[in-house]
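User: Quick sanity check before I run a bigger batch. Here is a single chain. Can you write out its predicted 3D structure?
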Amino acid sequence: MKFTKMHGLGNDYVYVEAFSQPAPADPGATARAVSDRHFAIGSDGLILILPSDKADARMRMFNSDGSEGEMCGNGVRCVAKFIHDHGIAKKPRVTVETGRGVLTLDLTVEGGVARLVRVDMGAPILEAAEIPTTLPGDPPIDVPIEVGGKDFLLTAVSMGNPHAVLFVDDVDAFPLEALGPLIEKHPAFPRRVNVHVAQVISRSEVKMRTWERGSGITLACGTGACSVCVAGVLTGRTEGRVLAHLPGGDLELEWPSREASVFMTGPATEVFSGEWRGA
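Assistant: Done. Predicted structure follows.
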């Protein structure tokens, strides 16, 4: 199986294109195998780049535990870069079919290689039942929740996958390693949830950390950064245009109005390619 290792701000996946080769028969098992950072390639999961009858390509993403996710913002930027740079869709605007629907991505190309990708992520999903969560509100905004014997205010939104955002005074001091998995599997989230802690630096700048559903702590989460932008507006903490500082780097987010799409701009990087022959 030929693969390419790519990352968006350190949120790294093993990418397998199925235009010229068969897709893995069991993607979940393949994701678990290749993600091991000590005995395999090492990654936050596996992303398949597949033919589509609706777009230039179709993306399926699998977390490192083998579970399939609906969407990955950093991942879809890398898919756009891959299909451009490898000649599948050599154009400055591409479309990718995802679990969220077909997304449109604009590429900044330098020397024939895509460097930055701006993604129309679609409008956030704000109905509690569609996020999904049993917390009150459409969406739940600053809802009190008790986790690990501590009380927090939580805002929940979906960008095609569920997110919980907690605004804190110091993201670095927050015990994300301990509380992230507890919030991820909280009964209020029937499909589990991605967890983000965010610190407001100004009305146009935030700092955040992420515990990703099925993967644990990651260096970046694109859909999570979009959710922090949305949550900042909904709670009145930030404006609709923010710069998000993640451990892996920065993302630019825009949410012009409640009915509008969220736009995300950030880098995509190809690291190396190889051939996986199994365990």
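The chain has a mean pLDDT of 96.

User: Great, the batch can go ahead then.
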